[in-house]
Amino acid sequence: MPATSPSTNRTPRYQEGSIDRVSRAKGPDVWVYRWRELDDDGNRVQRKQVIGNLTQFPTVSDAKREVENLRALINGQHDRPGKMTVSELWGHFQVNELGEGAQVERSPTTVNRYM
Predict the structure, then answer these.
(1) 73 with 17: CB under 8 angstroms?
(2) How far apart (Å, rounded) are the C-alpha atoms in residues 47 and 29?
(3) Contact status, residue 44 vs residue 36, Cβ threshold 8 Å
(4) Among the residues of the chain, which ranges form H helices?
């Protein structure tokens, strides 16, 4: 079996992230949403985005509601390596199990029916 890098087999977890209240020198405190991502080299990178101030979102629940769309966007942009669709699986089966050089020999009628 060929060796693969750890990042190709790892399924990214759903990021909940965290919301923190951060004090500002001038103006009201703000809510900051923090999460982690993997960069192109596979290193973890801490990200953050200011959601709004306490005047806009007085409670942490209000800030969490505001973050829901951002969280969905962040989690939706990651490819899910290691996962296949049924179509991709079928193509893989046809090439590797039924095609020339298949590891398992199948009768010509089996190959004809599946192709």
Answers:
(1) no
(2) 19
(3) yes
(4) 6-9, 60-76, 86-93, 108-114
Which whole-number Å values give the CA distances from 15 to 35, 49, 50, 63, in the listed order? 7, 14, 17, 16
User: Can you give the length of the chain in residues?
Assistant: 115
Confirm if 29 and 53 have CB atoms less than 8 A apart. yes
pTM exceeding the 0.70 threshold for the entire prediction: no
In angstroms, the CA 43 to CA 31 distance is 26
What pLDDT score was predicted for residue 31? Answer: 94
Torsion of CA 7, 10, 11, 17, to 10 degrees: -70
Q: How far is CA 115 from CA 56, 81, 88, 99, 108, in A?
A: 60, 27, 15, 9, 10
Question: Phi and psi (nearest 5°) for 49?
Answer: -150, 135
Q: Which residues of the chain have pLDDT under 70?
A: 1-15, 77-84, 100-104, 115
